[in-house]
Design brief:
Blueprint: H1 2-8, E1 22-26, E2 32-37, H2 46-54, E3 62-67, H3 79-85, E4 90-95, H4 105-111, E5 115-118, H5 122-128, H6 130-138, E6 142-150, E7 154-156, H7 168-178, E8 183-187, H8 188-194, E9 213-217, E10 235-238, H9 243-252, E11 257-260, H10 264-272, E12 278-284, E13 292-293, E14 311-317, E15 326-332
Parallel strand pairs: 3-4, 4-5, 6-11, 6-12, 8-9, 8-11, 9-10
Antiparallel strand pairs: 1-2, 1-3, 7-13, 12-15, 14-15
Function: Converts 2,5-diamino-6-(ribosylamino)-4(3h)-pyrimidinone 5'-phosphate into 5-amino-6-(ribosylamino)-2,4(1h,3h)-pyrimidinedione 5'-phosphate.
Catalytic activity: 5-amino-6-(5-phospho-D-ribitylamino)uracil + NADP(+) = 5-amino-6-(5-phospho-D-ribosylamino)uracil + NADPH + H(+); 2,5-diamino-6-hydroxy-4-(5-phosphoribosylamino)-pyrimidine + H2O + H(+) = 5-amino-6-(5-phospho-D-ribosylamino)uracil + NH4(+)
GO biological process, one term: riboflavin biosynthetic process
């Protein structure tokens, strides 16, 4: 199963809408006969990829899979049926599949006489597909709010300048996190004022082949020459201010992980609606004393009502050549 998880985590697989899955086919003596992983929408599922690798040797073998084999016919056939047809004797999977369209693989396998065991390294499998699992179980995308701030909580100086609160190392790290999501979300004011491109870029600042959907929230009309409307990624403008409406629309489009990089007003709206699941803060070792706050007014007037965020990770991003060092603090509510 550890090897299957390694296969599932193979770099380069586009984020969403399908989960990352790995599979290893084992012979009676425990030797690997074949292995495979899912490479994205429209490609062979991990089980089918592994069965192709094993060939006829798969008959009578054991399939070790990170996710319960699907029971759904979409762009590809149901993996449960493929395993039965290949003569697999036993299936061991980590995480159960509760998605309404794909669930039921275990019942199909057992009805065909296949021995099925579940739950091996289930938590590791859930962690691998954290956003997908959350979306399936909650009916909306997982939301990560990212922001950069000074020690005194400012995202921009009094004159509006904000380049650069975050260090080069922090910006590179941000692109890594962007690449793990399938939506980049900002408000219309951010587009009008800052003109971001909202793409995932490499070390030499070139956009990568697979890009998240760029989403702009707000009712105002925007100039068509804004960089977010270029041809380097798909862009959707949602003319609403309702965070729940935004997430419902994105979930209906098969999106599972929103990377919220909007300004303080949009962040406050999502926080007030209790729709932020993870916070990633890049803290710079500087003080401004005045300027734009990282988040707008949340209506909190007493310390007892403060929003508490459990810290999941703290990481120092070391600067180079005299560049400031930033600290990345990750907090998760679920």
């Amino acid at each position: 199963m550890r090897r299957a998880l390694e296969l599932a985590a193979t770099p380069g697989v586009p984020a969403g809408p399908n989960p990352r899955v790995g599979c290893v086919i084992l012979g009676a003596d425990g030797a690997a006969l074949g292995e495979g992983f899912h490479r994205g929408t429209g490609t062979a599922h991990a089980e089918v990829d592994a069965l192709r690798s094993a060939g006829e040797d798969a008959r009578g073998a054991t399939a070790v899979v990170t996710l319960e084999p699907c029971n759904h016919t979409g762009r590809t056939g149901p993996c449960a049926r493929a395993l039965v047809d290949a003569g697999i004797r036993r299936v061991v999977f980590a995480q159960g599949d509760t998605s309404p369209v794909a669930a039921g693989g275990t019942a199909t396998l057992r009805a065909a006489g296949v021995e099925v065991e579940s739950g091996l390294m289930a938590e590791e499998a859930r962690a691998l597909n954290r956003a997908w699992t959350f979306a399936v179980e909650h009916g909306r995308p997982y939301v990560t709010w990212k922001f950069a701030t000074t020690l005194d909580g400012r995202s921009a100086a009094a004159d509006g300048t904000s380049r650069w609160v975050s260090s080069r190392a922090a910006r590179r790290d941000t692109h890594r996190l962007r690449g793990e999501c399938d939506v980049m979300l900002v408000g219309s004011n951010t587009v009008a004022v800052d003109d971001p491109e909202l793409t995932v870029r490499d070390e030499v600042d070139e956009p990568l082949p697979h890009q998240p959907l760029r989403v702009v929230v707000g009712e105002r009309d925007l100039p068509t020459d804004r960089r977010v409307f270029n041809d380097r990624a798909e862009t959707l403008q949602l003319r609403t201010h309702d965070p729940r409406e935004v997430l419902d629309e994105l979930f209906a489009r098969g999106r599972q992980h929103v990377f919220l990089e909007g300004g303080p007003t949009l962040a406050a709206a999502f926080l007030a609606a209790d729709l932020v699941d993870e916070v990633v803060a890049y803290v710079a070792p500087m003080l401004l004393g005045a300027g734009r706050a990282a988040v707008a007014d949340l209506g909190i007037t007493t310390i007892a009502d403060a929003v508490h965020l459990p810290v999941a990770d703290v990481h120092v991003l070391q600067g180079h050549d005299g560049e400031d060092t930033n600290v990345r603090v990750t907090m998760r509510r679920s």
